[in-house]
Amino acid sequence: MFVIVAVVIVGVIFVCGALLGVSVAQNQAADRARRTHRDRHLSAVRTGSLLSQ
To answer: Which domain of life does the protein's organism represent (predicted)?
Structure first.
C-alpha cells in the first residue's frame, strides 16, 4: 500500500516538474521572440533615421 502511494506521489512530482519545465521553456521562447522583434524594430528605426539624414 505504501509503495503504491509513494509511486503515485513520485509520479505526480515528475509530471508537475515536466509541466513546469514546458511552461518555463515557452516563457523563455516568448521572451526571446519579443526581444528579437524589439531589436529588429530598433535597428530598422536607426537605419531609417541614418538614411533620412
So the answer is: Bacteria
For residue range 24-47, list pLDDT tens digits in order. 999 999 999 999 999 999 898 888
* Angle at 26 (CA atoms; ends 15, 19), nearest 5 degrees: 5
| Residue 35, number of CB atoms within 10 A of its CB | 10
Grid coordinates standing for 14?
515528475
- Torsion of Cα atoms, 25 then 30 then 34 then 37, to 10°: 100
31: closest CA among 19, 39, 20, 21? 39
Please give the Cα distance from 40 to 53 (Å, whole number).
Answer: 20
